[in-house]
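Regression report. Comparing outputs from two consecutive submissions.

Submission 1:
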Amino acid sequence: KGKHHRMFCDPAYVASPEYQAFWQRLGRGEFDAGRYKRFGYRGKAVWIQATYNPIFDMNNKPFKVVKFATNISPQIALEEEVTKIAINFATKSKEISSQAKAVASGTQSLGATAEEMSASVEELSASIDSIAQNAKSADSIAKKTQSEADQGSQAIAKSIEAMDLINKSSEEISEIVKVISEIASQTNLLAFNAAIEAARAGDHGLGFSVVADEVRKLAENSSKATKEISKLIHESVKRASQGSEISKEAANSFKKIVEGVAKTTQSITEISVAAQEQQTAAKDVAQAIQQVADATEKSAIASEAIAQATTELASGADQLKLAVQKFAN
């Protein structure tokens, strides 16, 4: 049986149990239908949609088989191409879905990193704000200190000027006292001479002698007083000179202090300006990082949507492949 049929079949299929079962069903008079792969001229594969109908004799035994077949090779080729495309589409969709999920995971990690960076920059910005505020306060204090130092320097300069005036006045007083001392000496000498002349005059010069003696005593007292005054003025001049020297030393020290305060004020002002610039830069960086965080969040959402869409596409491709297989069967 089937000798002519075998020549159109693959030798491996002819030797298979499946082929034997095919003829056994027909031998039992069972109807068979389906798609079959056969080989035509020069071994070219041909797919047919065929039915095999056993014909029974008068004894109700099958004695021949009637075959109706249609060439469906183009349809099979199309189905294979569609299946191949569906499999490839499903594979690519799964790859895209996997990559999209990886991108979404990466962007989520990047978003978390951006949030951490944003938090760090906010802390840095807060620190810079504090530094800027402290620098501003220090700048104000330094300027106030410089102003006070300038006032102190001016006060010392006036003190030195007053000391110089005291020295000058003391010298002038000393000259006046010296003149008074000389006058007292001359008065004492004249009184002494007058007393001598009064003694020569005898009783007539007695009254004049008393007056001369009183004048001499006054001259001695004046001389003594002028010496005391001269001594006090000398001490005053000496102390004024010492005070003047101390004031000059203090003025030099104050000058150095003022210069140091001025440099410190300038440095603090520069620090304050730099801190304000850092403050502005930190705010710009924080804003940029926030924009990155927003962008990565949107990217993550988009990647998740792509992953979801490609997953659905892959599922649709699998369903298409199953539908083609069902249609083929």
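Submission 2:
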Amino acid sequence: MTESLDPKSRLFQALGKPLGIIIDSLLQIGEELDLSIYVVGGAVRDVLMSRGIKDLDISVEYNGASVVAELVSRLDAKVIDSSPFGTFKLEIDGLFLDIVSARRETYEKPGALPSVSPGTILEDLQRRDFTINAIAIRLTPDPIILFDPIGGITDIDGKLIRVLHEASFQDDATRMLRAVRYEQRLNFTLDVSTEGLLTSSYDYLNTVSGDRLRNEVELIFEEEKATEILLRASKLGLLQSCYKGISSFSSLESRFSSLEDLSWDRDHSFYYALLAYDMNDDEVSDFASRFNIPNSESELARQAVRIQNLSSSWNSQTLPSEVYNSMRGFMVRAVELVEKTTINEQGYALLNYYLFYSQHIKPELSASDLIVMGFQEGPLLGKAHRQLTDAVVDGVITTKQEQISFIMGLLG
């Protein structure tokens, strides 16, 4: 379907001045070089939904490289990435622009990277993930038109996420995670047939590399509605199909609720720790290996699991000093994460107290004070100061004079 679109209508109103300058340049380039240039993908969808646009995806029939060269020359664009598929990522005054030569794609087997060949704009749209992303605005040749051959506008109006064909999730299983991400971000609903295809295609997740899975999951982490997306994916069984040990829906729901007032940033390591919360040590390592998660982002998960294991054995006879000594070496974030989410009442009380006294309750006597009192530097000095710390943490001694008496007693 094509539809007339006034150049001053929604596209140009949504762009703002910086992106408008880029579009003006594309209009000139298209006319001068006699090229068919299209705005495609999410930008078109967001224009039609009156959402803001930050980046642009451009598709050029047969000659994307020439458009890139012209933008570099005219607007001092910087090519920051390119691929064998003929895609280019440009940066122009802090704005990002993806340019691709229109192409057709075929998949030799599920999960494989596609075989690519030059194609028309119709073929380019037919390779897209969902109908709402398979709409184009033709900039050149004149007139500017809206091109919707697959019914994406109907699905935008109906607030539906729909795949273009039945083998979509087989071709690229990461589209399952993307479907839920768009559904929650846009407040849409999975089309009934699409949801059925999704829930029957989980086995194809095994065809996807760890890097591709991690990249798609981390796009979810960066969404404003990351919690809602993860809970929806969990309720569908999608997350657990990515890795069998990932926490259940009820577990995730409970923990997200417990962490609503968490003061520190919800970075990648935070979300990985929640996904891995119910795993054991070996499973966390296997999970990190499957998703190829860097150690810097999986360490919080490892520590949270170990703290849970330690705290599970605590009871009413456990002394605060035992907790203090067992928590040494753990990140405060890991302790706080478990403290806020544990269902072990004794564990919660002891971790809560630990977080308080680790910051506020310390001996008034330093190691230097103990040397002045008669200790020699060495192992006995360290042992004496630890005993003093334990006594202070356990509330056995409370004043400085009691601490002095305690140390004098150790000296004999």
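Expected: both submissions complete independently.
Actual: both completed, but the second showed a warning that disappeared on reload.
Relevant detail on submission 2: Residues 288 and 295 are 8 Å apart (CA to CA).
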